[in-house]
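PROTOCOL LOG
Step 1. Enter all chains and additional molecules of the complex.
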Amino acid sequence: MADAPLLELRGITKRFPGVLANDKVTIDLRRGEVHALLGENGAGKSTLMNILYGLYTPDEGQIVLNGAPVELGSTKGAIEAGIGMVHQHFMLIPVMTVSENIVLATEPKRNGVFLDYDAARKRVRELSERYGLAVDPDARIDRISVGQQQRVEILKALYRGAEILILDEPTAVLTPQEAQELFEIIRSLKEQGKSIIFISHKLNEVLEIADRITVLRRGRVVETIPAAGATEASLARMMVGREVLLRVDKQPSHPQGALLEVEDLVVHEDRGLEAVRGVSFQVRGGEIVGIAGVDANGQSELIDAIAGLRAPSSGRVVVDGRDITGASAKEAIAAGVGHVPEDRHKRGLVLPFSLTENLALHAYRTAPASRRGLLNLRGMAERAQRLLREFDVRGGTPTTPAGALSGGNQQKVVLARELDADPTVLIAAQPTRGLDVGAIEFVHRRLVEQRDAGRAVLLVSLELEEILSLSDRILVMYEGRIAGEFPPTATEEELGLAMTGGRSQEAA
Amino acid sequence: MSDELLTEDAERPPDPPPGDGIPNVGTARFQALTRAYGFIGPIGTTVLAFFMGGLVVLVTGHNPLSVYRAIFNGTGLNWFFHVGNHSARIPFSTHHMWFPWDTASVAAQNLQQTLLLTAPMMLTGLGLAFAFRCGLFNIGGQGQYLIGSYVAVWLGTSFVHLQPFAHVLLCLVAATLAGALYAGIAGFLKATVGAHEVISTIMLNWIAIWVGSYLLGDGGPLQNTTQKEIPISNNVVDGAKLPVFWGLKELQGLSIGIFIAIAMLVLYWLLINRTTFGFEVRAVGFNADAARAAGISVARNYVLAMGVAGGFAALGGAIDILGWEYQVGPGDVQVSEVGFLGLAAALLGRNTAVGVGLGALLFGGLINGTSGRQLDPSIFPPELAGNLATIIQGLVVLFIGLNLGGLAVWYRRRRRRSA
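Step 2. Run joint prediction.
Step 3. Record the structure below.
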């Protein structure tokens, strides 16, 4: 009985126009188990979970709950069937309290009309004590940390009676410490008999938390295996279908003179608060300097100030001996700053533009892309052909809109454009966010190539693993200041401590 | 197709399916579909609007088919269907030549009127379209059109001794520049303090209307010099009038304004698709953040795009004055809605050069075809016909908002999903 599956997905097939998102996917979930769903972007994880959460109807196949086939039909049906989902992007109302958010849509009522807030708070407190999910029921959502918001989401699912919890990339927004706390919560939920589907593309996490792992590739189940005995390398091979270099292959760096110098830089963010509070550092040619930090500790504003997108209030930015403090983006580009923006959809690409046009976003100003204000369409297209080939962009021709490409290929387009401009200093902000293993490997290799070609590379990333594997020196940013400099041999714990404001001996 | 997509290939893994929630529709097919809906949407919108207008006609106890037929004949577009052996005068000469159409028929006169109405709508339509490509919703076409007509009437009634060609050119260029400056105010406010262009252009419309009422009204500086009791401007002098190449100048024949408008459609297409300026404008319009990160000045493009848009709309006002109206009064200013019709035309035509042209022709034809002068009162009472035109215009704009093309895609998906 203990081993009888609580939930079975049998032969689920889901087609979208031109793509088979799920192809006869069969997965079972046992009671009290953490079952990880591993796969690259576009492998069909999200589609499968959206089917399980009632957002999509499968074209073929069955969902079997406790031995009986069920028809979910809607998210309401899924919730009633005891399935809860914590989305990657939280579905919370910022101005409401924790309790209000949790009971939303199923509020306990007084006289049938008014919210019985005390009853709601009581229920929330009970739940949070029972599962070890510490939150203040009266705190407003916008005043609590991201990790706590996630707990609220989990509580919300539990409040609605979830027996099965789907966690979609839950650690993407968390610090290493918060991730560990989440794993504690998952273990406690498991002990209380809840079953968890844990979606991720991070191999180490999956190995740490899951009992069994199902690997999806291009809509099909590759295999379901017990976590015990699996290794990162074996999982990566199953995910991608070939051997993958997990470690970045690079030689020791040979740094030369400083190409980027930042001195006492102070930058204000949009609301007028100081986001960067007197930051100084150098990046030499031939080295990768990684900036680690929890999101929103001034990294974005620092990048903006170097890239000419935000005028610093004081301090200096010097590129290869040229002072570009307060320069426009155009001037910064001309001075040799290449910028792979952190949000490629918002800043990196014009999605409705063709690949040709996206690749010409800087080059359109000069020959051969244009002459005397007139575009040279042939010159632009030829250049695009060449770059698409050089950077192995797949899934599109020069006339394809950038929005139709996969995330990895979109990032290759951004890289192609920035690297073709032959930058002196390359800022790579979260260059692999949302990319799959194969594309990450490609991006990393290109960044190391830039370093080896003698350029100064400034890598800003929220992924510690990425920082550690690529950087020659690591700076940690905390509350707008450099909280410490570390060698690439530093441990995640050391960096994590500095990232959350803990003092470190090595701090500069 | 799906099997092909999933074929294993050890040497080179096949393209990863696109992520980011966009289902891969197959690039070529996706592009073809997008393009097809680009046509189907506007046509469907128009057909649906006319169909519902037909229901209204039915309710009033008339036959929709014969009403629409009469309206169509009123537009003069039936002229093209009557081919025969005719002789036509070669424009601006005394020579005649063989021509397949009768250039002096009633239909020909109707068509001249339709095209006279169409030309300025093309230009006010371009005024919306150009700004739209830069991500700005220029509701100020009406005001910019009026500014153009004031400048044209002012300069066209002054400088009476100027050489005709120079006089026309002066009027057109000055009106265009004035409109560009006027619309540029909204662009400047948007670029500097972030004032929303919808609000500022609407306000500029009111300012233009009331400035006109003052300029042209009793005692105003542009009021006519002979009859002080009538609030209307002088007639522009002959040298400032656009040459009429079809029909009689005295009977509102068709001026070369229509060619100016068509030339501007071509210019618009060139500017948008073939110049670095147009490239910047489109980049800003689609994604201002990405444009900024690429070193494009968003503020500069906002100002310039509004300027160009206002120039187009104001040129529309100028060719109306110099082409057939010749004078303007406060009453005309208050009731004019060329700017708004151009807006609808551009929205229907999806801001493409051809689309704006055809959209303007549709509205120009609709207004002319339902006017009391053209429509046979025994088929449909003219006083109702004007309402019918307004209803159809309203329905078209409403259905543009619905985005029928997008609706069709959505419906297909839904059917697929539930199938």
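Step 4. Note key features.
Confidence is low (pLDDT under 50) at residues 1-26 of chain B.
The radius of gyration of chain B is 24 Å.
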